[in-house]
Automatic annotation (TrEMBL), chain A:
<feature type="transmembrane region" description="Helical">
    <location>
        <begin position="259"/>
        <end position="281"/>
    </location>
</feature>
<dbReference type="Pfam" id="PF00528">
    <property type="entry name" value="BPD_transp_1"/>
</dbReference>
<feature type="transmembrane region" description="Helical">
    <location>
        <begin position="70"/>
        <end position="90"/>
    </location>
</feature>
<feature type="transmembrane region" description="Helical">
    <location>
        <begin position="12"/>
        <end position="36"/>
    </location>
</feature>
<comment type="similarity">
    <text>Belongs to the binding-protein-dependent transport system permease family.</text>
</comment>
<dbReference type="InterPro" id="IPR052730">
    <property type="entry name" value="Sugar_ABC_transporter"/>
</dbReference>
<dbReference type="GO" id="GO:0005886">
    <property type="term" value="C:plasma membrane"/>
</dbReference>
<keyword id="KW-1133">Transmembrane helix</keyword>
<feature type="transmembrane region" description="Helical">
    <location>
        <begin position="207"/>
        <end position="225"/>
    </location>
</feature>
UniProtKB/TrEMBL annotation, chain C:
<feature type="transmembrane region" description="Helical">
    <location>
        <begin position="7"/>
        <end position="25"/>
    </location>
</feature>
<feature type="domain" description="ABC transmembrane type-1">
    <location>
        <begin position="64"/>
        <end position="254"/>
    </location>
</feature>
<comment type="similarity">
    <text>Belongs to the binding-protein-dependent transport system permease family.</text>
</comment>
<keyword id="KW-1133">Transmembrane helix</keyword>
<keyword id="KW-0472">Membrane</keyword>
<dbReference type="InterPro" id="IPR000515">
    <property type="entry name" value="MetI-like"/>
</dbReference>
<dbReference type="GO" id="GO:0005886">
    <property type="term" value="C:plasma membrane"/>
</dbReference>
<keyword id="KW-1003">Cell membrane</keyword>
<feature type="transmembrane region" description="Helical">
    <location>
        <begin position="101"/>
        <end position="120"/>
    </location>
</feature>
């Protein structure tokens, strides 16, 4: 399906352009400006060139945060994507159960992020939380405020609890968009459940899974509020991810220059990842439609 | 309107004007002579705009890597970027 | 037998989903002595005191009104600018369309922490700090790209013959868009509004930074429960429960739209 070539369509996009200029371009320019100056107070800055960039690039704490971030994002993606698809496949397709399940699934998504942190902060505590107490009852020495491993696991479980429903809802939307005729044809051919999944359901879900994968990657990569409330980045630096490192730098220590320089590096990382994702999935789409 | 909070400096202003000029130039070029996606030495089929974007992004990373790994001035990667950009646009 | 197993697994997942929520509700109904004392699956001394505190104290309930105000504003703005843009992306090819689309998405991906500082400066310059519109505009950073993205997907599902027929019938673009096209993607608009509401409702970092008193969101008010005497767990849990309520209501209202929107490919 070819689109109509018409540059006048820019007029329809104009409101978005204006809004994005205000909310993205101007702030981004400001960040670039800050990144090359030592700002002592508003309106008083000295040009320092690329000093902040050099310092940030050699910062051990940043390297640590980046490693933890990548590991974290990969872990949650590996759990959430298959789990979300499995849930979507298991959801009922008709009857009253559909609405009930969808409403329940959407529930964690609408909880403010700091409340998600609070919920798990309470739930995972060994003394007053059901989850923590249950794990302790199993004889495990579990304490997310003291053990780095426990804190890490708790943050991952919280993230999975919080966001798998989004993957499930999107995958479910993709599944519902498959006409019954496809299933009937598969039944006539005597296709196995796996074949139906591999050759009908999975390709048809490609679009929504693209969205789910991109959304989940981006959001897990800039996770801030939930671990901030749950563990405060600790114990030590065990759950300090990139956004938290950045906020600490900008607000906690008011190091505007280094924070801005780091923001740019952060943004460039995100840009590369999303470009690669976008291209890979677009290429996959073209391959599948041939 | 007060713009001092944006803390403009000459180098960053030059940087943004350069980028804006390049983008405007690419737009005019594309209007005069629409680009068709083609396959070059890059693993994917790209339009001129795609190659320009890849060039800018790889340029940014080249500069960062240069800063992180060496102490030499940034003119070297800048020169390399210009060459790389031309190669990319022509054969990418 | 296989279907049974599947339902069982789904049931287990829902238990995992609901247990932490149940615990929050459970705790909000207990007095603090009981919370800190013994682990009880059901509250032994049911108390609504925590909720009473929230509903009678203006500091608490204005937080809700503030949040709802800026979230609604944001949803309206996002939809208003995203609808024509999504139409343009779904129907026309124009110079730089793909790059602009991708660049919009990068804004959706950009960590809010990056924009924290310049936003504060920008809104200070315009005297917008501590207003609802400031938070609503700030949240457009990630909601407008998302709205364009989702709407574009829905609009692509509408055959272009409909547009062509309407133009031949003499419809002008605005008339066609408002009376023919929008009703066709009603479900898509519902789903988009849901997502805009959701992402604006749950965001805290920007909302907290851009407000001080007048437009302070409920989520920021919650930090008040931490005092010198330690954390008031019961009150915190009650406030948490109440932040879930508006979201649950929204899901309830759009659930039919959601189901319809999700099944749109069939229509």
């Amino acid at each position: 399906m070819e689109k109509w070539p018409d540059n006048k369509a820019w007029f329809l996009v104009l409101p978005v352009v204006v809004l994005v200029c205000f909310s993205a371009i101007i702030p981004l320019m400001t960040v670039v400006n800050y990144s090359v100056q030592d700002i002592l107070q508003p309106g008083m800055g000295f040009f320092v060139g690329t000093e902040w960039f050099e310092r940030i690039l050699h910062d051990e704490r940043l390297h640590g945060a980046l490693q933890r971030q990548v590991l974290f994002s990969l872990t949650v993606l590996l759990i959430e994507m298959p789990l979300g698809i499995a849930i979507a496949l298991a959801l009922p397709t008709r009857g009253w159960g559909v609405s009930a399940c969808l409403v329940l699934l959407a529930l964690p998504l609408l909880i403010p992020w700091n409340v998600v942190g609070t919920i798990w902060q309470i739930f995972a505590r060994g003394d007053i939380g059901l989850g923590g107490a249950a794990v302790k009852a199993l004889g495990l020495n579990y304490n997310y405020t003291a053990s780095a491993t426990d804190a890490w696991i708790t943050v991952v479980i919280m993230e999975v609890w919080h966001w798998t429903p989004l993957v499930a809802l999107l995958a479910y939307a993709g599944l519902r968009a498959i006409p019954d005729a496809f299933y009937q044809a598969a039944r006539i051919d005597g296709a196995s459940a796996w074949a139906v999944f591999r050759y009908i359901q999975l390709p048809k879900m490609r679009g929504v899974l693209t969205i789910a994968l991109l959304l989940r990657f981006m959001d897990s990569f800039m996770i801030y509020t939930e671990p901030f409330v749950l563990t405060g980045g600790g114990p030590g630096n065990a759950t300090t991810f990139l956004s938290q490192f950045l906020t600490r730098l900008a607000v906690g220590q008011f190091d505007l220059g280094p924070a801005a320089a780091f923001s740019i590096v952060y943004f460039l990382i995100i840009l590369v990842f999303s470009w690669v994702f976008y291209q890979a999935l677009e290429g996959m789409g073209k391959g599948a439609s041939k | 309107m007060d713009l001092t909070w944006m803390a403009w400096t000459l180098p960053t202003a030059v940087f943004f004007i350069t980028i804006a000029t390049l983008l405007a130039g690419m737009t005019v070029w594309d209007l005069a002579q629409p680009s068709v996606a083609r396959k070059g030495f890059l693993p994917i089929a790209t339009t001129r705009g795609d190659r320009f974007f890849i060039g800018l992004l790889s340029g940014a990373w080249l500069h960062l890597a240069w800063l992180g790994l060496t102490d030499l001035p940034l003119w070297y990667p800048l020169a390399a970027l210009v060459v790389w950009m031309i190669v990319l646009l022509r054969w990418g | 037998m296989k279907v049974r197993k599947r339902t069982l697994a789904l049931g287990l997942y829902f238990v995992f989903l609901l247990l932490p929520l149940y615990w929050l509700v459970n705790m909000s109904l207990k007095p603090n002595e009981e919370i800190l004392g013994e682990l009880t699956l059901l509250p032994q001394n049911v108390t609504f005191e925590n909720y009473v505190t929230i509903f009678t104290n203006a500091d608490w309930y204005t937080g809700y009104l503030n949040s709802i105000t800026y979230v609604s504003l944001n949803t309206i703005i996002s939809l208003a600018v995203a609808l024509p843009a999504a139409y343009a992306f779904s129907r026309y090819s124009f110079v730089g369309d793909k790059h602009f689309f991708f660049w919009l998405l990068t804004n959706r991906m950009a960590p809010p922490a990056v924009f924290l500082l310049p936003f504060f400066q920008l809104y200070s310059t315009f005297g917008l700090i501590d207003t609802h519109i400031a938070v609503a505009l700030a949240h457009c950073l990630f909601n407008v790209p998302l709205a364009v993205w989702i709407l574009e997907g829905f609009m692509r599902g509408v055959p272009r013959e409909i547009d062509e027929t309407a133009y031949i019938d003499g419809y002008s673009f605005p008339l066609f868009f408002a009376t023919v096209f929008l009703p066709l993607i009603r479900a898509g608009i519902g789903v988009t509004a849901f997502f805009c509401f959701m992402f604006s409702w749950v965001e805290l970092l920007l909302a907290r930074t851009l407000t001080t008193v007048e437009a302070k969101p409920i989520a920021a008010t919650m930090t008040r429960t931490v005092s010198a005497a330690g954390i008031d767990w019961g009150l915190l849990a009650a406030a948490g429960v109440l932040t879930i309520v508006p979201g649950a209501l929204v899901i309830w209202f759009v659930r039919n739209y959601m189901a319809k929107g999700f099944a749109l490919g069939r229509v």
